[in-house]
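> forwarded from #structure-qc
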């Protein structure tokens, strides 16, 4: 796996293993190549090295302070027909213009992981929208499970938040692009609070924000490098499973790690421009085949909205 970075010091801080010798490289794209370098590094000096990897990853871009959302950049390139190859990981230490679901602001604080992934499946995938959302959420949960003291503590709050003891420690995003019956690209965005709990205002749907180091204080077992290494492994494993047609297995694991099934909830409208209204209330009976929220006594499952645990 080839590694590119604008900061050798930062890259060596977060890489799960020691890289080889670093050398300088032009950040300008070659003829016909997508301008991934130029947009990621914004004209800064770039260094390159390599890591041994048994996973599918070909390229890892490490930016200490990103000027824009790497998740948005990968989507932008795919939409423009400049599709980056699959097996790309982008990691930012901190940055501007990062966001969560429905473009809600996301504080990208130092000490945390901000990871964007580009896949290029180029094959049919059943339930691909829910599949990649489940893949992203489960990969984070699997990575957290590897940290001593955090096994089985992380749960998934519908549809894309990861909680520990009802405190949000991570949010995930998923975007897919199709042509006919083929999924041509999939972009995942992951914001995981490893060392820092961002100072953000409490809301009904996110009353509390936390970090992994709030619970585990030993930085040797819980830091950016440890979690990035575990995340690279779990993303690779779950992606291969989805490609092999194992969506049902991913869905069942998502349900098992859900923190909403059996809980009383309110579901609020998710329009960010107006005061939210309650769309539905009740006890969660289950999750449908495409992650629809099924409430007891409700005629129709819910496919959108912000969930409030009561």
């Amino acid at each position: 796996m080839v590694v590119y970075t604008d900061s050798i010091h930062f890259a060596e801080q977060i890489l799960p293993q020691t890289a080889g010798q670093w050398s300088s490289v032009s950040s300008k794209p070659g003829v016909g190549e997508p301008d991934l370098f130029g947009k990621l590094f914004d004209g800064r000096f770039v260094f390159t090295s390599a890591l041994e990897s048994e996973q599918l990853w070909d390229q890892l871009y490490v930016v200490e302070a990103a000027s824009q959302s790497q998740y948005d950049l990968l989507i932008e390139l795919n939409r423009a027909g400049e599709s980056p190859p699959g097996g790309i990981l982008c990691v930012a230490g901190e940055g501007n213009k990062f966001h969560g679901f429905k473009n809600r602001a996301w504080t990208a604080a130092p000490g945390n992981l901000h990871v964007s992934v580009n896949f290029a499946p180029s094959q049919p995938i059943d339930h691909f929208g829910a599949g990649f959302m489940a893949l992203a959420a489960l990969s984070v949960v699997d990575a957290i499970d590897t940290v001593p003291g955090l096994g089985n503590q992380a749960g998934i709050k519908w549809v894309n938040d990861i909680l520990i003891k009802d405190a949000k420690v991570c949010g995930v995003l998923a975007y897919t692009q199709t042509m006919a019956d083929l999924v041509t690209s999939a972009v995942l965005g992951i914001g995981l609070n490893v060392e820092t709990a961002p100072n953000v205002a409490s809301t009904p749907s996110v009353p509390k924000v936390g970090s992994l180091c709030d619970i585990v204080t030993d930085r040797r077992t819980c830091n950016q490098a440890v979690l990035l290494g575990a995340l690279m492994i779990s993303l690779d494993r779950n992606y291969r499973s989805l490609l092999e047609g194992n969506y049902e297995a991913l869905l069942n694991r998502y349900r098992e790690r859900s923190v909403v099934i059996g809980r009383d909830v309110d579901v609020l409208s998710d329009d960010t421009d107006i005061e939210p209204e309650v769309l539905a209330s009740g006890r969660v009976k289950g999750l449908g085949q495409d992650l629809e929220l099924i409430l007891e006594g409700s005629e129709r499952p819910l496919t959108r909205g912000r969930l409030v645990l009561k």
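QC bot note: The first strand starts at residue 2 and ends at 5. Residues 224-243 form the longest helix (20 residues).
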